[in-house]
């Protein structure tokens, strides 16, 4: 009877041997939620770790048809909506002001200032979106420089709206990119 010796490598050596750590990183990069977040301009500058934190605090939702109210004018808004697919109309007292598409953020003003929603947001088509509740949004604001970027997004939108009213015959200028900090 011969004795069989089993040789093993300590866990650290085994994980780094054969490129396993590189394969784990490659799998992590293929996470569809992280890839989706990286395509959204407000999140595109974040590190992988920061994107992972954002991914943990947003949920993906879909609607099957247009006409669904996401945010109601005059009521407390509890949801940040980031459109991934489809379109949503923003209206004030029943008058459509603008149509938003993929990559655009809805519900930001009332979540930042804590007041009731100033407009109604209704889906114009079936949508796919990332959403964050009030509590999730409070956490998102703490990640990296997102607080500053959310406020910058809101400022750019206000400037664009003002120029559209002040000079209705001229196209609104493109928003300037926010530099990475």
Q: Which parts are unreliable, with pLDDT below 50 for 5 consecutive residues or more?
A: 3-27, 177-181
CATH evolutionary superfamily of the domain at 47-166 = Jelly Rolls
Give the ordered list of helices and strands. HHHHEEEEEEHEEHH
Task: Provide the β-strand percentage band.
Answer: 15-25%
What topology, given as strand order, has the largest sheet? 1-8-3-6
Provide keyphrases for this structure.
disordered C terminus, alpha+beta, four-stranded antiparallel beta sheet, Jelly Rolls, 181 residues, globular, 7 helices, single chain
Explain what this protein looks like in three dimensions.
A hairpin with a 2-residue loop joins strand 4 and strand 5. The chain is of the alpha+beta class and 181 residues long. The strands form two sheets. The chain has a four-stranded antiparallel β-sheet with strand order 1-8-3-6. It has a four-stranded antiparallel β-sheet with strand order 2-7-4-5, with no helix packed on it. Helix 3 (32-39) crosses helix 4. The radius of gyration is 22 Å and the shape is globular. The chain has a domain at 47-166: Jelly Rolls (Sandwich), CATH 2.60.120.10. It has helices spanning 11-16, 20-29, 32-39, 48-56, 108-113, 134-140, 146-166, and strands spanning 59-62, 69-71, 79-85, 88-92, 95-100, 105-106, 120-123, 128-133. The relative contact order is 0.14. Helix content is 37%, strand content 20%. The protein is built from seven helices and eight strands. Residues 3-27 and 177-181 have low confidence and may be disordered.
